[in-house]
Write a structure and sequence with these properties.
GO terms for molecular function: calcium-dependent phospholipid binding; metal ion binding. 14% of the residues lie in helices and 33% in strands. The chain is built from seven helices and 19 strands. The protein starts with 7 loop residues before the first helix and ends in a 5-residue tail after the last strand. The N terminus is likely disordered. It is of the alpha+beta class.
């Protein structure tokens, strides 16, 4: 965990502290009265009242039962009222569920400055303020940044204690996809009464030893000069362009006992070069005797196409302004039972417990509302009796979301 703890001697200059100069014997001048007055006039609370705050933020995920699950902590930044933390907090973004976050800021006591942040007992620290939001509220911003007010209940009542800006950044290993078209020429025939039915198997060599299969092509029947359909693979499948790859060519057999025609060891970088130079690489057949060299075969592997493409993620679309809509259709026919009966799907429980329709609408709408700017959702009903007494099998109105507390 990088930047996991503060270091008074080595960290002050890097994170904003002001070390004493040689020969400086002046006592600590204390808070700047002008700064304190400026912040008080603007309603800033405890985070901005002391020039000696050493802030750290703790991030929680709020569960359905209200319990807080700690996700991570920033580093401690010493003697700073406008900290910019470096430590990143990793969260698995799931757009299909609501992910309410809670941010709590603490002023860390001096005795904890040289210990890992995970070891800091929060009960021993001064609580400065708290902010709340849903993860999707940050993701849907074009800047993927959201500024929240910090609130503290110190003293008399809840008061503003400064602000906290949260920035979200997608950390996918790579959004690059490589599209490849392979072909071969002069493959060795492994069948007696027809030509071979070749396919390729691509594997990545791992550091621990051995190979991890990446993909297979389709089988081209009865062909010693096959060209396969394009295959698309993410860069994460290869690890890196320099990572060694094994490409094996097999003759397909329906019983699963495929016969190896030949193999090559290469890399994605080499595959790209083969395409640029329109050159091929010869297959080899491994020798059964480790003392002998592998036999170089007549058959060659060519790369007809090598294209790197950028693939946009869900977050890219949402942060660029795309929205999700939510449409509801409710069955009001008698098949759902008498709405006054507790067995009916439309029964309104005096205790406040949601019926099946209310629960479904709430759970879906509670997520979708953050991906819709106006939060108006069209809803339809059918089989219901209108105030006029007429039974309608299709009526509509728009509902403004009230799910966002």
């Amino acid at each position: 965990m990088g930047c996991g703890f503060s270091d008074i001697k080595g960290g002050q200059q890097a994170v904003g502290g002001t070390p004493a100069r040689p020969g400086d014997t002046a006592a600590d001048p204390g808070p700047n009265e002008a700064v304190v007055l400026f912040n008080k006039l603007r309603g800033y609370g405890s985070l901005f009242t002391s020039m000696e705050s050493d802030p750290m933020t703790v991030v929680y995920l709020k569960k359905k039962d209200g319990a807080l699950e700690e996700i991570g902590r920033t580093e401690v930044i010493m003697n700073n009222l406008e900290p910019a933390w470096i430590q990143k907090i990793n969260i698995n973004f799931q757009f299909e569920i609501a992910q309410p976050l809670v941010f709590q800021v603490y002023d860390v006591d001096t005795k904890y400055h040289n210990v890992p942040v995970k070891s800091i007992n929060l009960k021993d620290q001064d609580f400065l303020g708290e902010a709340n939001c849903n993860l999707s509220e940050i993701v849907t911003k074009q800047s993927q940044s959201l500024t929240l007010n910090l609130y503290s209940d110190k003293g008399h009542g809840v008061k503003t204690a400064g602000s906290l800006t949260v920035h979200a950044e997608e950390t996918a290993s790579s959004r690059t996809v490589v599209e490849l078209i392979f072909r071969c020429s002069n493959l060795e025939n492994k069948d007696f009464f027809s030509k071979s039915d070749p396919f390729l198997k691509i594997s990545r060599i791992v550091e621990a030893g051995g190979c991890v299969p990446v993909c297979k092509t389709e089988v081209v029947t009865n062909n010693l000069n096959p060209t396969w359909k394009p295959i698309s693979l993410g860069m994460q499948h290869f690890g890196s362009k320099e990572n060694p790859l094994i490409i094996e060519c097999f003759d397909f057999n329906s019983n699963g006992d495929h016969v190896l025609i030949g193999k090559v060891q290469t890399s994605l970088l080499e595959v790209e070069r083969l395409h640029k130079e329109t050159s091929g690489i010869h297959f080899v057949r491994p020798s059964s005797d480790p003392r002998d060299h592998d036999k170089v075969l007549k058959g060659e592997l060519f790369v007809n196409q090598y294209v790197e493409k950028h693939v946009d993620s869900f977050v890219d679309y949402i942060s660029s302004g795309f929205e999700l809509n939510f449409m509801v259709a409710v069955d009001f026919t008698g098949s759902n039972g008498n709405p006054r009966s507790p067995t009916s799907l439309h029964y309104v429980d005096p205790s406040g417990r949601l019926n099946a329709y209310q629960q479904a609408i709430t759970e879906v709408g509670d997520v979708i509302q953050f991906y819709n700017a106006d939060k108006y959702f069209p809803s339809w009903g059918f089989g219901g009796r209108l105030p006029s007494g007429v039974v309608s099998h299709c009526y509509m109105h728009c509902v403004k979301s009230k799910l966002n507390n």
